[in-house]
Amino acid sequence: DEPLFDRPGLSLFADVLAANLDTVSAQTIVAGMGENIAFSAGYGKFRTDGFETDRDLAQYGGNFFAQVRASDCLYLQTEYVDAKVERGVVNSDFDPLFRSVFRAEDHSTTTRVGARYEFEPYSLFFINVAAQSFDSKVTDIFGTVQTIGDAVAGEIQYTFTNETFGLVSGGGHLHATIE
Description:
The chain is an all-beta fold. It is 0% helix and 76% strand. A nine-stranded antiparallel β-sheet has the order 1-2-3-4-5-6-7-8-9, with no helix packed on it. The protein is extended. The mean pLDDT is 92.
């Protein structure tokens, strides 16, 4: 019975960056692993005023990932990602008559779960389900336009490989709505 990972333990990673134009970046990640489990969780942000007026950018994101070996044949995974971007945008910058400035904000979350079952070293079954939602806003002098969407996707796959033959079969489904 071999462990899923070779070096069990807990790790912390962090960094910070500061620069001109009000540019700041920071991220922190905690990762750990044991004989049959591994995880990581992180958060980061980046912000800058940009090189010109109305071209600022701010990004924020966090994630969590975990993988477990439930048995010698079954492996489980889960993941969650949250991301947000806020930015200023300038169109037709070279023509003052048509120059327009707007703000854009995007926020999305993704959740995923999956499993892998190993019948034999040459025979594997995979299943994966993911859900995502997003909210996008664009604001200019005329007001705000908002787009909201959700999607769910699922897939299954079977693979068989040996020294002389390989077979991959599977299918998936995607359902999405946008308002």
